[in-house]
Amino acid sequence: MHGNDQFTAVWRKSSHSGSEGSNCLEWRPGPGGRRVAVRDSKNLGIGVCALGAGAWAEFIRAAGGGAFRF
Q: Where is this region: Disordered (predicted)?
């Protein structure tokens, strides 16, 4: 992602994000589906973490399997 893309791109909120504004993980697919960008919507100033599609798929699998305590 370049420049202000993180502010203008269409982001998707995690289904585990709290309705009161806590746990706000957002993600968006990158060009060609090769990467996924992840950000904390409560703190946009810290930037974006870009993951390869394989790493993102592994994260989703692990999270769905209860590997993390949210």
A: 1-33
